[in-house]
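Board work, copied verbatim: SRPBCC family protein
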Amino acid sequence: MEWTGARYADKPTLEVRTWIDAPLERVWSLVSDIALMPGMSEELQSVEWLDGAAGPAVGARFLGRSKHEALGEWQTTSHIIECEPLRALAWAVEDPEDPSAIWRFRLRPKDGGTELSEWMQLGPGRSGLSLAIDRMPDKEQKIVFVRLREFERNVTATLGAIKKRAEH
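↓ predict structure ↓
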């Protein structure tokens, strides 16, 4: 059976959406408080603002420490690349010009509540996934597919946790 799917260089993406019965302001307060994110993620263990930053603003940086059963433990520096209160928050992991990933929350009013989406892109910069691909180049598409499914599961859980907090 031949495997067909995205390669890392294709900058594969995923997006998950949810509707939250809460106003934009409440949802934004949760999304923009990165200190809450480790409690909503299996992988992300801790985050801390760098350079004296106290919250998100374009150019602000934060350190994230992560852990994965197969990939081990690592830390990355993320750079806020978009910050529009009540609308969008995005960060590039490691080099903003050649990120190993980009993450973005988008909010919009919908049906008396808030539609929240979380989008992410792998690559194009090197990451821990690149090391796995280097070791097994013939399995690149499967490695990318499996990692995207893990991210989809984690993003779905994060959005569920934000929804629960916002609605209660």
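The CA atoms of residues 95 and 125 lie 8 Å apart.
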